[in-house]
Design brief:
7 helices; globular; five-stranded parallel β-sheet; FAD/NAD(P)-binding domain; 3 domains; alpha/beta; 23% helix
Length: 422
């Protein structure tokens, strides 16, 4: 009898997992079912470009069209998971039994957690580009914003696409310069972190680029309240920042259905897993991938892709009664758009800071440097996403573990030298 593998979520993680599993496991050995509440798959990196009129091609496509033949798609809302009975309970009352469960429910925006954020001014002078509706509304707002202070503010961590707010600042600077309005617009980036990014080396580099662009950086600002009509952000330490237009990244949580499942998630609804095998710490039949996984890695598409290789192998091994592969190292590779058709490429893992050099080897894309080549790499990612990553194919020459070849030692501002881990 075939094992039933139920995948919760048909986004990046769920689609990659289902398709990789379909390629790896014969149909007579595994039945694969993907469950999601709707049939709209959003290419989330495209949301960054929508406000500036730069989105290229369709960024929303049917979920079921992204799944390989032999993967069943069910459009349904999940209520909860019963770990003891190995069952997924749907809102309709139906129950799906599973032999293996893959949680790929992503991260959910929770703007209601920040008092005032959804109050007067929302979608008028306070927007987010982390949703299709918000990005479209922000496109209109930017077209009519000619002078004043534009504040890009992160409400709390963790967030998906953690470099995206910094990228928005760079693209906004470029946008207003192209349209001859930069001298009349003040740009400010507000973050709860102690720098522009969580990783010190990347933070130093990106913070320097923000300063070069004339973007003010306000750190360790924990927004306690948003006053839309008054145009202010209020921090828990009493500081306030005024704005004429605010672009916010709301707080994130795991999916409510996972938070309602006893024993499955942490306090914010993310699935607690072994960071190297992606197997749940609560139940051996459960694995997690993508933003739903509570691991100390960025909630980014590249991480999800790299996780897919290890996840698929571990589910195969689990079903065969074999020891799991503990090789996932938190590998993260991301392009950071800096405007003017240039981008910076970061590559790092759990234990290794971003390094200068080349990716994925001595002959490759430049790391930690602004480059037009990196910008082209960012643009190329969209067709690769639809036609290579989602179908569960490998990228030639790029594996799940972080490559060391081509990387140079990094020297911080304090003079400390860090060699790439081997």
């Amino acid at each position: 009898m075939a094992h039933r593998i139920v995948v919760l979520g048909g986004g990046t993680g769920g689609t990659i997992a289902a398709n990789r599993l379909r390629r790896a496991l014969p149909r007579d050995q595994a039945e694969i079912v993907v469950v999601d509440r709707d049939d709209g798959h959003v290419y989330q990196p495209g949301l960054l470009f929508m406000p500036f009129g730069l989105a290229d091609g369709e960024i929303v496509r049917p979920r079921h069209d992204q799944l390989l033949e032999g993967v069943e798609f069910r459009e349904a809302t999940v209520d909860r998971v019963d770990l003891d009975r190995r069952e997924v309970h749907l809102a309709s009352g139906a129950v799906l039994a599973y032999d293996v469960l893959v949680v790929a429910t992503g991260a959910v925006l929770t703007p209601e957690e920040t008092p005032g954020l959804l109050g007067p001014g929302w979608m008028e002078k306070v927007f987010t580009f982390y949703s299709v509706q918000g990005a479209a509304g922000l496109h209109y707002a930017l077209r009519h914003f000619h002078r004043g202070r534009l504040v890009v503010a992160v409400m709390g961590m963790p967030i998906k696409s953690p470099v995206a707010p910094v990228e928005f600042c760079f693209l906004a600077d470029w946008h207003f310069r192209v349209h001859g309005r930069r001298d009349d617009v003040e740009l400010t980036y507000v973050t709860p972190l102690d720098g522009a990014f969580a990783r010190p080396v990347a933070s130093e580099r990106l913070g320097g680029l923000l300063a070069e662009r004339g973007v003010e950086l306000v750190t360790q600002f924990h927004t306690e309240r948003v006053d839309g009509p008054g145009g202010t952000l209020q921090a828990d330490d009493g500081r306030t920042i005024g704005f004429d237009l605010a672009v916010v990244v709301p707080r994130h949580r795991g999916a409510p259905s996972i938070a309602r499942s006893p024993g499955l998630s942490d306090a914010r609804g993310f699935v607690e897993v072994d960071p190297h095998t992606l197997q749940s710490t609560a139940s051996p039949e459960v694995f997690a991938i993508g933003d739903a996984a509570g691991i100390p890695a960025a909630k980014a598409g590249s991480v999800t892709h790299f996780e897919g290789e290890v996840l698929t192998e571990n589910i195969r091994r689990f079903l065969a009664g074999q020891p799991l592969d503990a090789s996932f190292d938190g590998h993260t590779s991301c392009f950071v758009e800096t405007g003017f058709h240039r981008a910076v490429l970061l590559d790092y893992d759990y234990d290794t800071e971003p390094h200068p050099g080349r990716f994925p080897g001595p002959v490759g894309l430049p790391l930690l440097e602004e480059s037009h080549l990196n910008h082209l790499g960012k643009l190329l990612f969209q067709p690769l996403y639809w036609h290579t990553l989602l179908p569960g194919r490998d990228l030639p020459g790029i594996r799940s573990t972080m490559p060391v070849r081509g990387k140079e030692p990094t020297r911080s501002a304090s003079g400390h030298t860090d060699e790439p881990a081997s």
